[in-house]
Amino acid sequence: DFGNENVELVRSVSELKFPKAVILGNHDCWTTQQFSQKKKDRVQLQLECLGEEHVGYRRLDYPNLKLSVVGGRPFSHGGNKLFREKLLSA
């Protein structure tokens, strides 16, 4: 978790000039219940900043490092219940 939909922090991490893989946690969607069609919310802005470096439910390959990173369930707070299920279906 970066914490409480902190777009500025996520943006600064996304601008670091080295390979990275990020998965947003439950505190990164703390107030957003579902994506808005009218304006970009803070979760959408975080995902936009990260682009392909967000690995929620996907794999990111680093051929130069001979490494692949597989991301699990984004926005998760652990356990067997989904947190912010509507964000996962978007």
From TrEMBL:
It comes from the Eukaryota. This is Calcineurin-like phosphoesterase domain-containing protein. InterPro entries: DevT-like (IPR027629), Metallo-depent_PP-like (IPR029052).
